[in-house]
Amino acid sequence: xxxxxxxxxxxxxxxxxxxxxxxxxxxxxxxxxxxxxxxxxxxxxxxxxxxxxxxxxxxxxxxxxxxxxxxxxxxxxxxxxxxxxxxxxxxxxxxxxxxxxxxxxxxxxxxxxxxxxxxxxxxxxxxxxxxxxxxxxxxxxxxxxxxxxxxxxxxxxxxxxxxxxxxxxxxxxxxxxxxxxxxxxxxxxxxxxxxxxxxxxxxxxxxxxxxxxxxxxxxxxxxxxxxxxxxxxxxxxxxxxxxxxxxxxxxxxxxxxxxxxxxxxxxxxxxxxxx
Length: 275
Ligand code: SF4
Ligand code: SF4
Prior knowledge:
By secondary structure, the chain is an alpha/beta fold. The chain contains twelve helices and seven strands. The two termini are 31 Å apart. Residues 198-204, 214-215, 218, 246-249, 251 line the site of one iron/sulfur cluster.
């Protein structure tokens, strides 16, 4: 999804203006623009609008995945760690993405509420991949039509990013304020996978940004052992999809952990608490 990248390129001045106001709301606040080092044009644009007396800086981040989540960004920029029980404020941070910063500009300078989203429509199954400014509430089907529609051979459409998005059963659903993109595939890699047993290769563990042991979490989910899932740190899973991606046994680990987390939360609710 390239939408935040385009917003930075085309609305850089507005983003810097919005963040200048945000910085005045917090005493001693410093604004850090965390931008991956493969986006040198965005870095140049943002840098061009920062004035010498702004308490603003650009932190060039190593290009890697996952990097965009709050926890990853806070760690990459400040070295501070937060877990699932903490808020960014616990690390004395607020994380605002490019589109949100632009929405702040619109609210403060143009008196415009959040009525549009910028979305990427992409994938080999789309006729004209592009980024769009979309009214919130518009049917995602119409957004796809704006991109020239789907090719006949499309077999799967997902809402969201390639690693974290979810398959859409119905395209006629409204764009929400959290919608970021639509990707259409002409080949369903997941359906074509032949799942086998875990071979204990440890690859999932080596890529987990939350330092979890996915093969053990997987066992806990299979055995419906929510206590063990929790004690193994399952709630710290950020659902990045890296473990599923590298698993040679093609085990849908991330999907299992989404279920495991939901089960821990519903169990806590049943017991009168909250997670
Ligand atoms: S999805 Fe897998 S790799 Fe990503 S945080 Fe969760 S367990 Fe770790
Ligand atoms: S990557 Fe897959 S096969 Fe390897 S240890 Fe993890 S779950 Fe098992």
